[in-house]
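ingest -> fold -> write
write: protein_1
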Amino acid sequence: MNASSGTHAGAQAAPEAARRAPSSGWLTFAGIIILMIGCSNVISGLAALFKDDYYTVSEGRLLVFDFTAWGWIWLALGVVQAAVGVGAVRGSEWARMTGTALAVVVAVCQLAFLAAFPLWSLLVIGLCVLVIYALVSPPRGATGA
Protein backbone atom coordinates (compact mmCIF):
# COMPACT_ATOMS: atom_id res chain seq x y z
CA MET A 1 0.00 0.00 0.00
CA ASN A 2 1.57 3.27 -1.03
CA ALA A 3 0.89 6.79 0.16
CA SER A 4 -1.16 7.73 -2.87
CA SER A 5 -3.60 4.83 -2.46
CA GLY A 6 -4.09 5.63 1.25
CA THR A 7 -4.88 9.23 0.40
CA HIS A 8 -7.28 8.18 -2.31
CA ALA A 9 -9.22 5.86 0.04
CA GLY A 10 -9.43 8.59 2.69
CA ALA A 11 -10.65 11.14 0.16
CA GLN A 12 -13.32 8.74 -1.05
CA ALA A 13 -14.59 8.04 2.49
CA ALA A 14 -15.11 11.73 3.26
CA PRO A 15 -17.68 12.39 0.47
CA GLU A 16 -19.50 9.16 1.35
CA ALA A 17 -19.91 10.31 4.97
CA ALA A 18 -20.99 13.76 3.76
CA ARG A 19 -23.75 12.21 1.62
CA ARG A 20 -25.36 10.45 4.59
CA ALA A 21 -28.41 12.23 5.91
CA PRO A 22 -27.95 13.62 9.39
CA SER A 23 -29.92 11.84 12.08
CA SER A 24 -32.17 13.57 14.57
CA GLY A 25 -33.53 12.31 17.85
CA TRP A 26 -36.24 14.98 17.57
CA LEU A 27 -37.64 13.33 14.45
CA THR A 28 -37.71 9.97 16.20
CA PHE A 29 -39.48 11.58 19.16
CA ALA A 30 -41.98 13.35 16.90
CA GLY A 31 -42.69 10.23 14.87
CA ILE A 32 -43.31 8.09 17.95
CA ILE A 33 -45.52 10.72 19.62
CA ILE A 34 -47.52 11.27 16.41
CA LEU A 35 -47.97 7.52 16.08
CA MET A 36 -49.10 7.20 19.72
CA ILE A 37 -51.53 10.12 19.48
CA GLY A 38 -52.81 8.75 16.17
CA CYS A 39 -53.51 5.34 17.73
CA SER A 40 -55.24 7.07 20.64
CA ASN A 41 -57.35 9.09 18.20
CA VAL A 42 -58.34 5.92 16.34
CA ILE A 43 -59.45 4.35 19.63
CA SER A 44 -61.32 7.53 20.62
CA GLY A 45 -63.00 7.66 17.23
CA LEU A 46 -64.12 4.05 17.43
CA ALA A 47 -65.36 4.57 20.98
CA ALA A 48 -67.40 7.59 19.88
CA LEU A 49 -68.87 5.64 16.96
CA PHE A 50 -69.80 2.50 18.86
CA LYS A 51 -70.72 3.91 22.27
CA ASP A 52 -72.65 7.19 22.18
CA ASP A 53 -72.37 7.85 25.91
CA TYR A 54 -68.56 7.46 26.00
CA TYR A 55 -68.06 11.22 26.06
CA THR A 56 -70.05 12.59 28.98
CA VAL A 57 -70.75 16.28 28.86
CA SER A 58 -73.84 18.09 30.06
CA GLU A 59 -75.26 19.23 26.71
CA GLY A 60 -74.56 16.28 24.44
CA ARG A 61 -72.64 18.34 21.89
CA LEU A 62 -68.98 19.18 21.74
CA LEU A 63 -68.28 22.59 20.26
CA VAL A 64 -69.89 22.15 16.84
CA PHE A 65 -70.49 18.51 15.93
CA ASP A 66 -72.25 15.59 17.57
CA PHE A 67 -70.40 12.54 18.89
CA THR A 68 -70.74 10.50 15.71
CA ALA A 69 -69.18 13.26 13.62
CA TRP A 70 -66.32 13.60 16.11
CA GLY A 71 -65.87 9.84 16.00
CA TRP A 72 -65.32 9.95 12.25
CA ILE A 73 -63.04 12.99 12.57
CA TRP A 74 -60.84 11.33 15.22
CA LEU A 75 -60.77 8.07 13.29
CA ALA A 76 -59.65 9.76 10.06
CA LEU A 77 -57.09 11.95 11.83
CA GLY A 78 -55.71 8.95 13.70
CA VAL A 79 -55.17 6.87 10.59
CA VAL A 80 -53.39 9.73 8.81
CA GLN A 81 -51.33 10.47 11.94
CA ALA A 82 -50.14 6.86 12.13
CA ALA A 83 -48.84 7.05 8.56
CA VAL A 84 -47.26 10.45 9.19
CA GLY A 85 -45.54 9.14 12.34
CA VAL A 86 -43.81 6.41 10.35
CA GLY A 87 -42.85 8.90 7.65
CA ALA A 88 -41.45 11.36 10.21
CA VAL A 89 -39.11 8.73 11.66
CA ARG A 90 -37.89 7.99 8.14
CA GLY A 91 -37.27 11.71 7.58
CA SER A 92 -39.78 12.29 4.78
CA GLU A 93 -40.30 15.96 4.04
CA TRP A 94 -44.00 15.40 3.29
CA ALA A 95 -44.40 13.77 6.71
CA ARG A 96 -42.71 16.69 8.44
CA MET A 97 -44.99 19.24 6.76
CA THR A 98 -48.13 17.13 7.13
CA GLY A 99 -47.25 16.29 10.73
CA THR A 100 -46.86 19.95 11.60
CA ALA A 101 -50.24 20.78 10.06
CA LEU A 102 -51.89 17.78 11.76
CA ALA A 103 -50.44 18.76 15.13
CA VAL A 104 -52.06 22.19 14.79
CA VAL A 105 -55.39 20.65 13.72
CA VAL A 106 -55.36 18.11 16.57
CA ALA A 107 -54.48 20.79 19.14
CA VAL A 108 -57.40 22.94 17.97
CA CYS A 109 -59.75 19.92 17.93
CA GLN A 110 -58.72 19.05 21.48
CA LEU A 111 -60.12 22.41 22.58
CA ALA A 112 -63.55 20.99 21.79
CA PHE A 113 -62.92 18.13 24.21
CA LEU A 114 -61.88 20.22 27.20
CA ALA A 115 -65.35 19.71 28.69
CA ALA A 116 -65.23 15.93 28.33
CA PHE A 117 -61.55 15.17 29.06
CA PRO A 118 -59.80 18.29 30.39
CA LEU A 119 -56.52 16.71 31.54
CA TRP A 120 -56.15 14.51 28.47
CA SER A 121 -56.93 17.45 26.16
CA LEU A 122 -54.32 19.65 27.83
CA LEU A 123 -51.75 16.85 27.69
CA VAL A 124 -52.35 16.28 23.97
CA ILE A 125 -52.18 20.03 23.25
CA GLY A 126 -48.82 20.17 25.04
CA LEU A 127 -47.56 17.15 23.10
CA CYS A 128 -48.70 18.77 19.85
CA VAL A 129 -46.58 21.82 20.64
CA LEU A 130 -43.57 19.58 21.26
CA VAL A 131 -44.24 17.67 18.04
CA ILE A 132 -44.33 20.91 16.05
CA TYR A 133 -40.94 21.91 17.46
CA ALA A 134 -39.54 18.42 16.89
CA LEU A 135 -40.63 18.44 13.24
CA VAL A 136 -39.40 21.91 12.32
CA SER A 137 -36.10 22.05 14.23
CA PRO A 138 -34.01 19.28 12.54
CA PRO A 139 -32.11 20.18 9.36
CA ARG A 140 -33.60 19.44 5.97
CA GLY A 141 -33.04 15.83 4.91
CA ALA A 142 -32.50 14.54 8.45
CA THR A 143 -33.80 11.12 9.42
CA GLY A 144 -34.83 9.68 12.76
CA ALA A 145 -32.01 8.50 14.98
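write: protein_2
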Amino acid sequence: MRKVACDQLVMTPVGISAYYIGMSAMERKQDILAVWRETFWKTYQVAVIYWPLGQMINYGLVPVSFRMAFFGSWCFVWVIFMSNLRHQQREAEGTEFGLLRAIKKS
Protein backbone atom coordinates (compact mmCIF):
# COMPACT_ATOMS: atom_id res chain seq x y z
CA MET A 1 0.00 0.00 0.00
CA ARG A 2 2.88 2.38 0.75
CA LYS A 3 4.35 1.72 -2.70
CA VAL A 4 1.05 2.60 -4.38
CA ALA A 5 0.74 5.79 -2.31
CA CYS A 6 4.32 6.78 -3.12
CA ASP A 7 3.69 6.08 -6.80
CA GLN A 8 0.54 8.23 -6.84
CA LEU A 9 1.97 11.10 -4.82
CA VAL A 10 5.46 11.29 -6.34
CA MET A 11 5.89 9.45 -9.62
CA THR A 12 2.50 10.09 -11.21
CA PRO A 13 2.76 13.91 -11.07
CA VAL A 14 6.34 13.71 -12.35
CA GLY A 15 5.36 11.45 -15.26
CA ILE A 16 2.33 13.51 -16.26
CA SER A 17 4.33 16.73 -16.04
CA ALA A 18 7.19 15.28 -18.08
CA TYR A 19 4.76 14.20 -20.80
CA TYR A 20 2.92 17.51 -21.19
CA ILE A 21 5.95 19.77 -20.75
CA GLY A 22 8.07 17.57 -23.00
CA MET A 23 5.43 17.56 -25.75
CA SER A 24 5.11 21.34 -25.55
CA ALA A 25 8.88 21.75 -25.71
CA MET A 26 9.12 19.47 -28.77
CA GLU A 27 6.32 21.47 -30.42
CA ARG A 28 8.32 24.63 -29.65
CA LYS A 29 5.47 26.29 -27.79
CA GLN A 30 6.11 29.78 -26.45
CA ASP A 31 4.68 28.86 -23.04
CA ILE A 32 5.61 25.23 -22.44
CA LEU A 33 3.58 25.16 -19.21
CA ALA A 34 0.28 26.26 -20.78
CA VAL A 35 -0.88 22.77 -21.76
CA TRP A 36 0.32 21.40 -18.43
CA ARG A 37 -1.74 24.00 -16.55
CA GLU A 38 -4.86 23.14 -18.55
CA THR A 39 -4.67 19.35 -18.45
CA PHE A 40 -2.60 18.29 -15.42
CA TRP A 41 -5.41 18.07 -12.84
CA LYS A 42 -7.83 16.31 -15.17
CA THR A 43 -5.16 13.75 -16.05
CA TYR A 44 -4.06 13.34 -12.44
CA GLN A 45 -7.63 12.73 -11.27
CA VAL A 46 -7.99 9.90 -13.76
CA ALA A 47 -4.52 8.54 -12.91
CA VAL A 48 -5.22 8.16 -9.17
CA ILE A 49 -8.05 5.80 -10.05
CA TYR A 50 -6.61 4.14 -13.16
CA TRP A 51 -3.16 3.13 -11.90
CA PRO A 52 -4.08 1.67 -8.47
CA LEU A 53 -6.86 -0.31 -10.16
CA GLY A 54 -4.35 -1.65 -12.68
CA GLN A 55 -1.90 -2.55 -9.92
CA MET A 56 -4.60 -4.35 -7.92
CA ILE A 57 -5.67 -6.35 -10.97
CA ASN A 58 -2.09 -7.08 -12.00
CA TYR A 59 -0.87 -8.28 -8.61
CA GLY A 60 -4.13 -9.79 -7.40
CA LEU A 61 -5.63 -11.59 -10.39
CA VAL A 62 -3.05 -11.94 -13.17
CA PRO A 63 -0.76 -14.99 -13.07
CA VAL A 64 2.94 -14.12 -12.67
CA SER A 65 3.80 -15.26 -16.18
CA PHE A 66 1.31 -12.78 -17.72
CA ARG A 67 1.96 -9.72 -15.53
CA MET A 68 4.39 -8.03 -17.90
CA ALA A 69 2.01 -8.41 -20.85
CA PHE A 70 -0.92 -7.15 -18.79
CA PHE A 71 1.04 -4.16 -17.52
CA GLY A 72 2.26 -3.32 -21.02
CA SER A 73 -1.32 -3.39 -22.29
CA TRP A 74 -2.46 -1.25 -19.35
CA CYS A 75 0.29 1.29 -20.16
CA PHE A 76 -0.69 1.29 -23.83
CA VAL A 77 -4.27 2.26 -22.94
CA TRP A 78 -2.92 5.04 -20.68
CA VAL A 79 -0.79 6.46 -23.50
CA ILE A 80 -3.83 6.45 -25.78
CA PHE A 81 -5.79 8.37 -23.11
CA MET A 82 -3.05 10.99 -22.68
CA SER A 83 -2.62 11.37 -26.43
CA ASN A 84 -6.36 11.83 -26.82
CA LEU A 85 -6.42 14.58 -24.19
CA ARG A 86 -3.51 16.27 -25.93
CA HIS A 87 -5.26 15.99 -29.31
CA GLN A 88 -8.48 17.49 -27.93
CA GLN A 89 -6.53 20.40 -26.52
CA ARG A 90 -4.77 20.98 -29.85
CA GLU A 91 -8.07 20.81 -31.75
CA ALA A 92 -9.48 23.48 -29.44
CA GLU A 93 -6.46 25.66 -30.24
CA GLY A 94 -6.70 24.89 -33.96
CA THR A 95 -3.07 23.75 -34.08
CA GLU A 96 -3.23 20.31 -35.70
CA PHE A 97 -0.19 19.40 -37.76
CA GLY A 98 0.27 18.57 -41.42
CA LEU A 99 -2.00 15.78 -42.59
CA LEU A 100 -4.82 16.54 -40.14
CA ARG A 101 -4.91 20.18 -41.22
CA ALA A 102 -4.86 19.21 -44.92
CA ILE A 103 -7.71 16.71 -44.44
CA LYS A 104 -9.88 19.24 -42.64
CA LYS A 105 -9.33 21.85 -45.36
CA SER A 106 -10.48 19.53 -48.12
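write: annotation protein_2
The chain has a mean pLDDT of 85.
The CA atoms of residues 84 and 92 lie 12 Å apart.
pipeline exit 0
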